[in-house]
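Supplementary Text 2. Reproducibility record for the structural model of the 284-residue chain.

All settings were left at their defaults, and a single model was retained for analysis rather than an ensemble. We include the record here because the model underlies the residue-level annotations in Supplementary Table 4.
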Amino acid sequence: MHNFFRRHTVKTIIAPAYNTNRTVSEFVNTIPKLFDQDGDIVYQGRNTLKRFTLDNGDIIVKKFAIPNFINSIVYATFRKSKAERSYENSLEIIRRGFHSPTPIAYIEEFRYGKLRNSYFLCSYLEKYNTMRLYLDGVEKNDALLTAFSQYTAELHCAGIFHKDYSPGNILWKYTIDSDRYEFYIVDTNRMEFIEYGKRYLKNLSRLSFSPHVSTFIAKEYVSYMQRTKQMPMTDKTVEKINEYADRFFLGKAYKYALRNILKQPFIKASKGYGILAVFLYAKI
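Retained model, structure tokens:
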């Protein structure tokens, strides 16, 4: 509790594999001071990702948005921060035999006992692609989608439940030597490790708004579960997966339309109430 009365404290956890690496250790300890000035921006939005180059390889540093007043207290006292969860969940994914960028460290900065800035550091993956173009149906690659569907089934059977299992959070590359597709999970702060159940079918809902792609993945997923895991799945399971996907993307479209309607002046907005009514009717 004494930290509540200290103006500024920093908690830094470095993975054991990097603790003895002086270059990495020194770099980690300077992140709170150099992040805003140095590094190459990979993504900037609510959170910011930057790429830093060290002698022994590149590192990705994710700086999380400063939490609101309530969450800043919650993360400092009752709940693990997003940075800590990213670090621990990545370690657990790897421990269970799957891939995630190697976690290097996490850092938390506190002001008068409230969490302010937090950072997660991991290895940078060269020459990996996201699944977005293929899950959106822009690019066609049935072999990739089949491998991805089977990978997802194995991931679920291992008890790995990614709460934001979506195109941008799954990376892949094809390895010629092994003639296999290799997948990595990123953005790991929102995860659970739970026994397989019906809830996992909903985990496929965010993957594709394309009925063709969604059905292809659902069929491959169900077929693989039947064939290798002896799971009691049928064509109705495919329909249920597609139903979850339809609900998710309809809800997303509804929220997007509502958000844009509310941004407009009242006269313009009134013209959009018909659209809103359509979405409300469709969700009933």
